[in-house]
Amino acid sequence: MPAPGHVVSLEDQIDRWRSYLRRRQAIHSVDVAELEDHLREQVAALVEAGLATDEAFLVAVKRMGALDALSREFAQEHADRLWKQLVVVPADSGGPGVRARTDAIVAFSLAVAAAGLVKAPALFGIQLDQDVGFYARNGSLFVLPLLTGYFAWKRRLHTGTLRWLAVAFFAACVFANVYPFASRGSTEALTALHLPIALSLAVGIAYAGGRWSQVAGRMDFIRFSGEVFIYYVLIALGGGVLTALMAMTFRAIGIVIETFFQSWLLPCGAAGAVLVASWLVEAKQSVIENMAPVLTRLFTPLFAAVLVTFLGTVLWTGRGVAIERDVLIGFDLLLVVVLGLLLYSVSARDPRSPAGAFDVLQVTLVVSALLADTVALWAIAARVSEFGFSPNRVAALGENVILLVNLAWSAALYLRFLRGRGSFTDLERWQTNYIPVYAAWAAMVVIVFPPLFRYI
Amino acid sequence: MDTSNRVRERRATSPVVEINKDLVAASSTPIVLAILAEGDSYGYAILQRVREVSGGRMEWTDGMLYPVLHRLERLGHVEARWEVAESGRRRKYYRITPGGRAQLAEERRQWHMVDATLRGIWRGLSLAVPAGQPASAALPQNGD
Questions:
Q1: Which residue, A204, A239, A252, A289, is most buried by CB atoms nearer than 10 A?
Q2: What ipTM was predicted for this assembly?
């Protein structure tokens, strides 16, 4: 008879064995249950034959076969399992399934709430097609509080944090609406553009759920943001196809749906899709490879090639950058893209792996972007007095400086890493520490710029 | 300790025949279907039956049986159901379907043909090949 101590250790061993099996994609939990029944039967038979429990366990596991080979056999029989990894609401009953379902229900309810919120101002006589300014300024306020609420619920945020987040949203609400903006003025457009950036910090804090102070927590938010962006674009594409088909079929029976589309489907869909995309990223987080890093891998060499060619052409032909009104914004966008490429490949890189060819490519990209931006800034600085300081130009310049500082120090840290003098973690820490800077600048544009430029 | 020695001894008297992978893959379908034709069963018991019938000389890696069962299930040759066994654990039982019986008959016909052909050839070779060679030793015995 095995001693009670042995029974416990057998359970522990089986637990461990089960967790090894669970990690295999091709082996589902029902199969694990089936195999476990087999293992227990085998152990029982061997114990009956006189083996000690731990001996019996070892023999039984050995007879079960090597895990890799077994997993390969299962994968061959269930090839579909290597593809269909994201079961949005798993059919399995039990703990995790129920939680996933509640999660889905909450997310979709919030998506519907966001869609409703978009149309709520209509109750007070504010129409989407007439009060464009109101909607532009408040667009993010229809969605981001709900998104923050979703994560606050999911991560069970402390009431202290919640209070601060509520204050942030309330302040955003005030600053978006109290200023006497000139109709269709630049400061109004700047507020519309910068408020979401400032508020995304609140989303990030809720997303990190108490881990915002850690590099890993902020890095998770960066990963999340990249995935949300990709999912949002995919949902938007699907929505486009849906609307086009809808318009076509209804036109065939003589009904024009353009107004419905413009005042209902598009705004409500756009708001709800943010929550659905976020929920999808949450649901698939651990099961599907992140897409953003894959795209950065694809595009980093291409962007690097374009920028190096650009710099080469500038040097070769001696052409100056033609200064037009929007050139600074164009270069801001360039830096944003380069920063995104850097950020999302940093987010996917194992900090412990040694420097490789891709890292060199990354540094080339960043340095050439810096040089290109310097060329543009040089040209602008020479004639800045001619143009004068409009709010758009100051905002663009500020953003350019912020991005330039980030990328310059990133390049320095990266070079240090390539030469073996620093660790990759420094770069990670720098990038994640820099997130609040964007939010702070955006908040400043929202709060200070309108009065500073007299609401033009 | 002496019991594990006994286990080893028993193995030593009836040596396990290494059957190559292709042959295992090919023979697993008729063997599993034939065992299920005797009555509903589950994984562990099926393997026990294989050991019993082969006199302990045919050893499958235990885990490999399950992908085979799942394939037969997918093809509709067997159907599965979960039941609570007397041990209190949930256990997956398999039952052969009419389609499975037809498949078994077909497999049996084919194996007989292969067996007959091989026997004919072995006879022609008479004693040129020693009977201890793995594949040739395993097949006729299992075919009977």
A1: A204
A2: 0.74
